[in-house]
TrEMBL record:
Pfam family, one: MORN_2
Alphabetical list of InterPro entries matching this protein: MORN_2
Name of the protein in question: Toxin-antitoxin system YwqK family antitoxin
Top-level division of the source organism's lineage: Bacteria
Organism, scientific name: Candidatus [Bacteroides] periocalifornicus
Amino acid sequence: MAAHPQAADTVFNQVDAKGQRHGFWRRFYRNGQAAYTAQFEHGKPVGITLRYDEQGRKEAEIRHRKGTDYATVTFYSDKGEVIAKGLYYKQQKDSVWSYYGAGGVLVGKESWRRGKRNGARDFYSDAGVLAERQMWKDGKLHGRQTLYFENGNPRAFWDMVAGEPSGQMVALYPNGLARLKGQYVNGKREGKWTFWTPDGKLESTTTYEKGVVVGGVERQGDSIMNQLLQNAGRIAEPAANAERPF
């Protein structure tokens, strides 16, 4: 077994005859703080991997499941609170991941398969109420997307196909009455979009052709719906540096 050329001693940072990491490894920031500690068996991480920030605070704890390619992962805030938990498969996100806010409040949950979002991705309000549900397939938004009010009633829903809106979009008022209805074709607004007042009276209609307003100016309500589509779904995920398995 040969010592890694960057190692400071003969105890840590060893490689085997094939040049693969083997045994106990550690790396340091320039300020002397440990960046990570890990253990390897012929290039494969085993046991517990710990990552730290430059102030010495633990960012991540990765527990490798013996004899498998799976590892359970926990990420921490700079205050030491858990901010995310999940599973790695071959160093890629897999299965269900959960995200937490201050005080351990669940703020989001999502499904992964081999490094790609696959299935439901849920977001919760500060009160713990489901605020949004996205559906994903092979890393792209696909299926019914739904936003909710605090009372649990739908706020808006539409379908996505391979990352593009498709078919009918409906937005609702808190009382359950329709706010707008319209169609998407090939990811663009098409045909007549209808808007109503909170008491159910027709407010206006706007006609689109391949996403462009026909004979008019896009109204404020349209811009609100654009914002819903663009800003839907926000989970504050761990920093990229912390997400590296080792």
